[in-house]
Amino acid sequence: MNTAVAAHCPYCALQCGMTLTPREPGALVGPRDFPVNEGALCQKGWTAASLLDTPDRLREPLVRRRRGEPLRPAGWDEALDLVAGRIRELQDRHGPDAVAVFGGGGLTNEKAYLLGKFARVALRTSQIDYNGRFCMSSAAAAGTRAFGLDRGLPFPVTDLRDADVIMLVGANVAETMPPLVRHLRRARDRGGLIVVDPRRTATAEQAALHLAPRPGTDLALALGMLHAVVAGGHLRRDYADARTTGLAQAWRIAARWRPEEAERVTGVAGACLRDAVELLAGARNAYLLTGRGTEQHSSGVDTVSGWINLALALGLPGRAGSGYGCLTGQGNGQGGREHGQKADQLPGYRRLDDEAARRHVAAVWGVAPEELPAAGRSAYELLDALGAGTGPRALLVFGSNPVVSAPRAGHVARRLAALDLLVVADTVPSETARLADVVLPVTQWAEEDGTMTNLEGRVLLRRRALSPPQGTRTDLTVLRELAVRLGQPASRFPDDPEEVFDELGRASAGGPADYAGISHRRLRAGEVLHWPCPDRRHPGTPRLFLDRFAHADGRARFVPVDHRGPAERPDPDYPLIATTGRILAHYQSGAQTRRVADLLRAAPAAYVEVHPDTARRAGLADGDRARVVSRRGTVEVEVRCVPTIRLDTVFLPFHFPGDERANLISNPALDPTSGMPEFKACAVRLAPANGERP
Ligand SMILES: Nc1nc2c(c(=O)[nH]1)N[C@H]1C(S)=C(S)[C@@H](COP(=O)(O)OP(=O)(O)OC[C@H]3O[C@@H](n4cnc5c(=O)[nH]c(N)nc54)[C@H](O)[C@@H]3O)O[C@H]1N2
Ligand SMILES: Nc1nc2c(c(=O)[nH]1)N[C@H]1C(S)=C(S)[C@@H](COP(=O)(O)OP(=O)(O)OC[C@H]3O[C@@H](n4cnc5c(=O)[nH]c(N)nc54)[C@H](O)[C@@H]3O)O[C@H]1N2
Ligand code: SF4
Ligand SMILES: [Mo]
């Protein structure tokens, strides 16, 4: 009999605990008591073992000798020699920045760390960024600006159980993190759940108060609510005086946003907005949580600042039993943004433009600080620059499928095709891997050891539960083998996860995200460790900010922000606003979940959610094929009439490939601070599929 091994789900940031029992082939998922999910899993978690023996699992490297020829099986040495050889050629001719790297927030801490080191030390390129730019970057920037530190939730999710009131802004947790909903029960059952979403989602269905703003107008709503807090006498003056700065400047702007003014912009009735404020202000324990709906905008950073200002005015952050948090998305969305795969970043959440940080990390890496490159392009800017002008000529992708998930995906696919070399390391032939010149088959979650940092900043050890398929290698081994071929000493690129983690600990020591005291050994022994954890006797930090915020003066910052709205407004040619997001059955680009039979059956194809009146006006009815057309492209999908969505808004899930890619229409307008694209609002028109040529 095979015994059950404690494991964590391969997908989202909850990192639900589960058991895996190895079978031949694959494994069986079972429930396991873990505080985040208490034995519950969503449909994706229950079916996750299918990922291990999916029929088209990559089991040998694939190489395309010339463009136009098919990918053919190759040996590992042949594939790695070819990649290293072409990298050398391109860098000799065009300089180090000719080669770029694109990482992912699903990679373990060890992988994210070694990928960043590989780029800076082995490639000496500044051109590295990752898909977390599309995910967390706006909230991260706003959190840092307000609190001096970005940890998605500065408290354990289980703290939410005691809340009277919880406001979820642009987060559809009933579909994106179903087991989290159990921690919202108390608030929900007391009529204290507030949901801000243009759609009446499964989450909004459970709310006492659902505010449905026009997509892209959340900052006006937040300003209106701040106004109502002050005007209603709910400002926590004592807290603001003792623990914050900048209220006067923020108020100068909010003073102009009477709730009726906010109503004009958002479509949310001033009275509803005041009700939400009354609920929040009247609660003993209240939380404000943001998700991608409010963050993925070209004004995402300011919008999150608007929500944080509101939370500060109500005195929520850094108070036991209350708080502000942003719900991190990917499995290692938190750790993935701390250890150096981000364009401007060094391990430990240090900055690449900070001299002391460069010295510290360079010393750990055994190189001179001057050898470390400067900050590079943000994710979309990087993809947009590929194969043109001074842009990179080669791209190495680890843990992302940008052909489906990047904004303006049609353009991104053309940029990838213009490269001299595209290398993709993946477990399956994703849409991006299919375009590659070299595909490297790697091991995944249950086949290797590695740590993940969940949405609460808790570092978890994922253990190897079964043997990887013959022919695959770990990402760490791939990086080491490439580094050695590029002239690096093997000792500088360990591929044992525990050894990499110890080095990561040293590199992060003294930085904002300090992992120095965490070790695989402590995690194996069952210790519960949230960063920062600066030394081996430190108990970790489940709750941040209770005494002071992370700015030098210990105070949080109100940031003066004003509403701008989306980069693209509806007009007579494109009269509707399209927003995009997730559905329960699929994960991200769908590269994994579209290969799970049960999930594909549950949600086989993309669709567009439309109000029945809006559909009728476009000559469409439920079940019809429609074209959704923006200035960037056209998607062809089925119409799903939903009477509870706003009349001016349509919604598409982004998990589907080909002509159904929601990102064919999305707008790559970027937030000036975070580089976040505007996934959540662009102008479109709707037409019957046969009525208009793309
Ligand atoms: N099933 C499933 N779960 C997942 C994932 C997945 O792909 N599938 N991915 C994981 C990842 S990486 C992430 S980042 C999280 C994301 O988790 P969420 O943030 O919950 O997911 P989204 O569906 O992108 O967006 C949430 C909601 O924002 C709403 N919205 C759209 N525009 C606006 C707006 O302008 N204002 C407001 N207030 N709301 C708006 C949408 O209608 C949507 O219901 O989910 C994680 N969990
Ligand atoms: N329109 C629209 N677009 C969006 C969003 C949206 O809301 N709307 N959301 C954005 C967000 S929040 C996110 S997070 C992105 C995510 O979008 P992507 O970056 O495309 O995310 P995934 O589909 O998770 O891609 C991960 C890939 O890595 C592979 N993989 C899994 N584990 C490993 C590993 O250990 N090593 C390696 N080498 N590969 C591995 C998987 O098989 C898969 O092909 O999409 C963004 N795009
Ligand atoms: S909620 Fe997230 S971590 Fe939990 S089972 Fe579902 S996908 Fe996995
Ligand atoms: Mo994400």
From TrEMBL:
It comes from Streptosporangium carneum. GO terms for molecular function: 4 iron, 4 sulfur cluster binding; metal ion binding; molybdopterin cofactor binding; NADH dehydrogenase activity. The keyword DNA repair does not apply. Coiled coil: none annotated. This is Molybdopterin oxidoreductase. Keywords: 4Fe-4S, Iron, Iron-sulfur, Metal-binding. GO terms for biological process: respiratory electron transport chain. Residues 2-54 form the 4Fe-4S Mo/W bis-MGD-type domain. One of its GO terms (cellular component) is membrane. InterPro entries: Asp_de-COase-like_dom_sf, MoPterin_dinucl-bd_dom, Mopterin_OxRdtase, Mopterin_OxRdtase_4Fe-4S_dom, Prok_molybdopt-oxidoreductase.
